[in-house]
Amino acid sequence: xxxxxxxxxxxxxxxxxxxxxxxxxxxxxxxxxxxxxxxxxxxxxxxxxxxxxxxxxxxxxxxxxxxxxxxxxxxxxxxxxxxxxxxxxxxxxxxxxxxxxxxxxxxxxxxxxxxxxxxxxxxxxxxxxxxxxxxxxxxxxxxxxxxxxxxxxxxxxxxxxxxxxxxxxxxxxxxxxxxxxxxxxxxxxxxxxxxxxxxxxxxxxxxxxxxxxxxxxxxxxxxxxxxxxxxxxxxxxxxxxxxxxxxxxxxxxxxxxxxxxxxxxxxxxxxxx
Length: 273
Hints:
Layout: E1 7-10, H1 14-24, E2 28-31, H2 37-42, E3 50-53, E4 63-65, E5 69-73, H3 78-83, H4 85-90, H5 92-98, H6 104-109, H7 112-118, H8 124-132, E6 135-140, E7 143-148, H9 149-152, E8 153-155, E9 158-159, E10 166-173, E11 179-185, E12 195-201, E13 205-210, E14 217-218, H10 220-227, H11 232-236, H12 253-271
Parallel strand pairs: 1-3, 2-3
Antiparallel strand pairs: 4-5, 5-10, 6-7, 6-10, 8-9, 11-12, 12-13, 13-14
Helix pairs in contact: 5-8
């Protein structure tokens, strides 16, 4: 499991990283912690000609109060997110879920921005981000733009980020006092979720699903049912509607659909829906 050969560029600034992306186009990939990109390269599922290392850039790992939201630098590690007192108070779901990712070595190197940019449907943090209704700031040669959570994930390991754009910031709305829950079913503590559910109840409920489709996804069926006056139990019963869960060695689509309904019921109950 050795990657194909590639050129290596160490960016010394955000603008320098964007310049490298602009020069090399879709032949270049950004790398921060490397926990998403390197495994793909080892299996030859990704073969960038140029790897642009942004892991040493300063100023992109801060977590600050943005008024009505919390601003998280894209290079904030999972461990930084997990232990942030500000997030634990204002957006506790994000802090809790970051603490469920992998093992300590992964959490000390992997970054929130890398996890979201990777867009893995089996990943925990994209689900938390969707349930929170957050957004990301992307910077490219033409300036910055904000991408909402429902627009970010476009397909399997694909996002709305352009080839010459770099995610610099993640914004999550403040939700102090809101009900929330994270349910994750896996074979072993550090495994990817066979199915997972993240829920936030802050006036209205947002429910996202893990490993139930080709990309991180909200459960619109559950949210629409609740908005229409359905009970939490009845809403959970439609959690698998509109999904396309995979079949693999951990379970088939029918099994995952059953898990989605069970875990959604638990999540809604814990979130106080």
